[in-house]
Amino acid sequence: MEIEIVQTSIFAKQKKKLKKNQIKDLDEAVQAIVKHPEIGERKIGDLADIWVYKFRMVKQEHLLAYQWDSEKRILIALGVHENFYRDLKKYKNF
């Protein structure tokens, strides 16, 4: 079964700013999410339906917010820890 990967406009804008070596690390993180969606940490409270996967991108930790079901992975946002959750709450209704 083919898993559909959907990017929100917010995620696409953040990805567009990355360099080639950063995109390589991001692609590996996305593939990990596709294969094992429970790899991230499920959030609670306001962000209860969102999972966040922490990974290293060029020696710096980044967070990738996503939602998933059996057929689809929705990539919501990407960033470093600083203000990540505050901003994620802002555009939760992407």
Quick gist of this model?
This protein is α+β, with helices and mostly antiparallel strands. Helix content is 33%, strand content 32%.
Query: What composes the largest sheet?
Result: 5 strands, mixed
* Count of extended strands: 5
Q: State the CATH superfamily name.
A: RelE-like
Name the overall outline: globular
CATH hierarchy: architecture: 2-Layer Sandwich
Biggest sheet strand line-up? 1-5-4-3-2
Proportion in helices: 25-40%
Structural domains: how many:
1
Question: Which parts are unreliable, with pLDDT below 50 for 5 consecutive residues or more?
Answer: none
CATH topology grouping: YaeB-like fold
Number of helices: 3
Give the integer mean of the pLDDT values: 94
Beta content comes to: 25-35%
Calculate the terminal CA-CA distance, rounded to whole Å.
27 Å
The succession of helices and strands, N to C, reads EHHEEEEH
Radius of gyration: 12 Å
Task: Outline the structure in words.
The chain has 94 residues and is an alpha+beta fold. The protein has a single domain, classed as YaeB-like fold (2-Layer Sandwich), CATH 3.30.2310.20. 33% of the residues lie in helices and 32% in strands. The chain contains three helices and five strands; from the N terminus they run βααββββα. Strands 1-5-4-3-2 form a five-stranded mixed beta sheet. A hairpin with an 8-residue loop joins β2 and β3. It is globular and about 30 Å long. The protein starts with a strand and ends with a helix.
